[in-house]
Each structure stands twice: as structure tokens, then as C-alpha cells.
Amino acid sequence: MTASGPTSGDAGTAHGMSLRVLVAEDDRAIRELLVHHLERDGFRTIEAGDGPSALRVARDGIDLVLLDVGLPGVDGFDIARTLRREGRTMPIVIVTARTEEVDRVVAFELGADDYVTKPFSPREVVARVRAILRRSGMTSDATPAVMRFGRLEIDEAAREARVDGRDVGLKPREYALLVVLAANAGVALSRDTLLERVWGYDFDGDERTVDVHVRRLRMKLVEEYHLDACVHTVHGFGYKFAPA
């Protein structure tokens, strides 16, 4: 278990103090990747590689917990259950390789605030952390990211996608879809994953909804603004953001 200090940037600050994020993950490479991106965004991180250590640290003034389910000693579900039973209200984000619906249901019933499946983009995990903390009033998130890919930039503060500085005029779902894809640049995302992250866990529609919105997104970016194709089909699976 180690603690690390913040780097430059104020996205992870509240009232001048760095927010403390517990990264509870037994895979050292994944843990270090998350720590790197969180600290780069201004958060203070504390690491735990097993369940008992994670539970001990979580009881000590942590602002948010990134919690792997498969921790040795005490698993993540038991940790979440214990923390909520003790009345602790810090946000909990489950980060796990488990993709079954029953696991998601269990996580949310135990009081988790979000559920991220591996493989994941660390940039998206940090964005989810910022969003959860912003909703909880713990950070103003005064400097949200602007993602730039050549002629395309995505401004999270303005909720705009711009090509050559001009707002493309995406509808809310189109914009949200682009953000999720761009935050996971180079990662193939299934249609089910996109449905969950853009439309929500309880959405009643089917996978064709994703196809329709991708088609509209491509029409605007490629046909109207002559942008090189950046949203690519992964046949039989979903889509991948890979700008030229």
C-alpha cells in the first residue's frame, strides 16, 4: 500500500485541497496505470493491492474508491457492502473484468456509483471520477478536458464537437456517443457497452439504436465537414474510434 502526491492541475481539488482516491486493484500494472492518470489530473492517490488493506484505507477519509472485485483476502463486493453498512457515503466505482448483468446488478444494489469493465480507457475512468465527484459537490471541475484529434476537438465544458473551430451541432446522444468513443481511442467497444454508457443501464431499446446514431455521427463529420473517417466498424462486435 502506497500513497502518492498530486501533480499539476486542479480538476481533482476542492477548496484548495487535493481529493484522495483509493485505487484498490491487485494487478500492479493496472493499478499503476490508474494512479498515473489520476495524479496527472490532480488527484492524490492511495494504493491497495488486497482486500483488507483496501477496507482499512477506505475507512480513513477517502473521497472516492476505485474498487476491483477480485481482490485477495476480501473481495470488492464485500468491501462495498461493509462500507455502506457502516454508513460511509464516499462514491464507489467498481472496476472489474466481470461483464455479466448479474454482477452489475449486485454492484449497484450494494451501493456502487458506477461500474467499469476491463479493458478500459484510463482517460474515461478519470472522466467518470470527475463526473461523480462533480455531482456530489466535491469538486467544481473547473477545467474539464478538451480532446483534440487533428481537425476535430471535443470540448467537455461547452459540450461541443468542433471541426476547424466550428461547432458541428451534434444532438445530445450523438455528442455523448462521440465522447465515449473518443475517450477510448483505439479500443473496440461493443454495442452493448455503448448502449449502457450512452443510453443508460435501464434503456429498453436494442443495438440498432447505436448503429443509427453512429450513421448520423459519420454523416455530420465526414459528409458535412469532410473529416477523415474516425469511427470505424468492428464487424460483429461494435465500433472503435481511430482518427487518421
Task: Explain what the structure shows.
By secondary structure, the chain is α/β, with parallel strands linked by helices. It contains eight helices and 15 strands. The strands form four sheets. A six-stranded mixed sheet has the order 1-5-4-6-7-8, sandwiched between helices. Strands 9-10-11-12 form a four-stranded antiparallel sheet, with helices on one face. Strands 13-15-14 form a three-stranded antiparallel sheet. About 3% of the residues have low confidence.
Task: Describe the structure using short key phrases.
Rossmann fold, single chain, alpha/beta, Arc Repressor Mutant, subunit A, 2 domains, 244 residues
What is the helix tally?
8
N-to-C order of helices and strands: EEEEHEHEHEHEHEEEEHEHHEE
Shape category: globular
Strand order of the largest sheet: 1-5-4-6-7-8
pLDDT averaged residue by residue: 85
- Kindly provide the radius of gyration, computed on alpha-carbon positions and rounded to a whole number of angstroms: 18 Å
Please identify the structural class as seen in this structure: alpha/beta
What is the tally of beta strands? 15
For the termini, the CA-CA separation is 41 Å
For the largest beta-sheet, the strand count, sense and barrel status come to: 6 strands, mixed
CATH architecture call of the largest domain: 3-Layer(aba) Sandwich
CATH superfamily of the largest domain: Response regulator
- Beta-strand fraction estimate: 15-25%
Q: Please name the CATH topology of the largest domain.
A: Rossmann fold
Helical fraction: 25-40%
Q: How many domain regions? A: 2
The low-pLDDT segments are: 4-10
CATH top level assignment of the largest domain = Alpha Beta
